[in-house]
Amino acid sequence: MIHTLITSFRLKNTYRVNSIIYSIKGLPIIRKVLSNDLYKSKFLKVLGNIISIIIEICSIFLGKFLYIWLAISSIAVIYQTDPTNTFLHLFFFLTLAGGILNTYMFNPTKDKYYAIVIMNMDANQFAISNYSYSMLKVFVGFLPFTIIFGTLAQIPLWICILLPFFVVMIKMTVIGNMIRKYKQKGVVNNENLPTKVSWIILILLLVIAYGFPYVGIVLPVNIFLFLCMISFLLGTISFMQIYHFKDYKKMYKLLLTPENVYALQNANSTKTIKDNIASNINYDGEITSDKKGFAYFHELFIKRHSKLLTKSAKKQTLFIVVVFSILIMISYMIPELREKLNNIPLTYLPYFVFIMYLLNRGTTITQAMFMNCDHSMLTYRIYRTPRVILGVFKERIKTLIKINLLPSSVLGLGLMLLLYTTGGTDNFWNYLILFVSVNAMSIFFSVHYLVMYYLLQPYNVNTEIKSSTYTIVQSLTYFACYYMIQLHLPTISFGIATIIFSIAYSFISLLLVYHFAPKTFKLRI
Questions:
Q1: Cα dist from 154 to 66, 86, 166, 229, 414, whole Å
Q2: Long-range residue pairs from 506-514, CB within 8 A, at least 24 positions apart, any chain
Q3: Cα separation, 453 vs 459, whole angstroms
Q4: Among 64, 292, 464, 506, which residue's CB has the most CB atoms within a 10 Å radius?
Q5: What global pTM score does this model have?
Q6: Please, which residues have CB within 8 angstroms of residue 184's CB and are 6 or more apart in sequence?
Q7: Contacts (Cβ under 8 Å, ≥6 apart) of 449
């Protein structure tokens, strides 16, 4: 079994190293220095292996640290409930949700496909050894952070040590239940394709985890410990079932189909993307425009793609209206919650940086621009001259801002109305700053995505992302926005800073696009 684990790890490490070398080759400056004959380089293979080891260590610790810090510890302090009970309450219900979402064994990954289907490795030994290793990583990764953050939440040390065991037992219980289901019905659950029932359970668990403490309901320590003991019993029974199950090969034949293994890749394939975009294009030949030059060229594109560009924004707007209607109704039905709801617009404005990041449609729109316009136009030299690039960029940024301002304006108005109906504020400027700053965030993201597209144009002719730099900038943007959740700042100071930053970024972006886009805005090989 150890030999099987080592072989599977070497296999996984090999294609991970090759992926790292490919990514290094895609970085600016470096790609000009390195030759195409990279995969024979011993130095790069050693470097790739070092990076692979770092990635493996990060997969053990970094995710768990961010999870406990951002999803549990930093959230627990927001509530007015007992910190110990709140921490354990969040940890318990989020662990249940995580047990459903991250099964490890029922995740149809490429390493399983290569090992079991292509290389015909012993499925039973592969499943048990790799799952045991995954559970070991879960335990080792959680232990230091449950001790650190649990101690800060005034949880006894022995309970902090107990928490990683609880996580492992919950995951084993879920796997045991899935194996029993397979024995009874011959059905294998794909972790990446949760059923409707799974989604409903997940939503309920998240509502209980984050909603109940808001109204003062949390899981007492003694109840948590009792449920832990039950999970230990169920987890132990499930472990025996996992270990003694002998039909992993048959089960994995159902799970590890090319459709499941390459589901995400197929969903992002050129054909699928083109089909999705094509279904939303208006091919009416009577569509025209009264404008001239760049404005004419751009308006024709917008009119033909109006359904694709605005459909999501309209749905987001409707959802925002429903959410704020419910919050305002709650403020009248439960008066004691008004103070907490009133505190949201006055203190938690940084949260909405991440919300605006999620709402923004920049990636989808730039992808449509490339696929249905730029991938053809970039073959003409005139389309990459500074004057043409800046002209089209200005028209596009106007449209992108206009589309994203629809949900952001309603969000800004919703925050103002929520503030007013829950007690208001003595400073009138809070209302104005709320509305303007949320829209400034929307403008920033609209500009940011278009600037990324022009300066780091990531697509090749098949609409595949071939820019490592683009992926890195995307990731940094996500983490920066997610970090904002941790900030609790007064609305006026943070709002003014946001407005100034958005204005400055917009002007700087015009200069960057004008000077650098003629060299960077081109088809990738």
A1: 20, 11, 19, 21, 37
A2: 506/443, 506/444, 506/447, 509/447, 509/448, 509/450, 509/451, 510/390, 510/393, 510/394, 512/451, 512/455, 513/389, 513/390, 513/393, 513/451, 513/454, 513/455, 514/386, 514/389, 514/390
A3: 9
A4: 64
A5: 0.61
A6: none
A7: 360, 362, 363, 365, 366, 400
Rounded Cα distance between 73 and 263, Å, is 34
Residue-wise pLDDT for 326-379, tens only, equals 888 888 887 877 888 888 888 888 888 888 888 887 777 777 777 777 777 777
Q: Identify which of 345, 338, 374 has the alpha carbon closest to the alpha carbon of residue 454.
A: 374
- CA-closest candidate to residue 406, choices 417, 394, 414, 416: 414
Comparing C-alpha atoms, which of 135, 60, 136 is closest to residue 99? 135
Which residues, at least 6 apart from 380, have a Cβ–Cβ distance to it below 8 Å? none
- CA atoms in the 13 A half-sphere facing the CB of 287: 16
Which distant-in-sequence residues (6+ apart) come within 8 Å of 240 by Cβ?
Answer: none
Each residue's pLDDT tens digit, 22-35: 666 666 555 555 55
Q: How far is CA 419 from CA 371, 426, 427, in A?
A: 43, 11, 11
Rounded CA separation 323/508 (Å): 35
**Residue 260 φ then ψ, to 5°:** -75, -45
CA distances from 96 to 81, 92, 135, 229, 405 (A): 21, 6, 15, 15, 37
Q: How far apart are the first and last CA of the chain?
A: 43
Q: Phi and psi at residue 97, in whole multiples of 5°?
A: -65, -40
Q: How many residues does the chain have?
A: 525
Q: Enter the tokens of residue 355.
A: 């919300």
Q: CA angle, 481 as apex, 476 and 485 as ends, to 5°?
A: 140
Tracing tokens 């200069």 back to the chain, one arrives at 511
Asked whether 297 and 392 are in contact (CB, 8 A), the reply is yes
Instruction: Give the bridge partners for 465, in sequence order.
Output: 459
| Residues 491 and 440: beta-carbon distance below 8 Å | no
User: Looking at residue 524, what DSSP letter applies?
Assistant: B
- The CA distances from residue 219 to 73, 82, 191, 478, in Å, are 16, 10, 28, 32
- Asked if residues 155 and 68 have their Cβ atoms less than 8 Å apart, the reply is no
SS3 525: coil
What is the C-alpha separation between 92 and 34, in angstroms, rounded?
A: 50
pLDDT tens string 226-239: 999 999 999 999 99
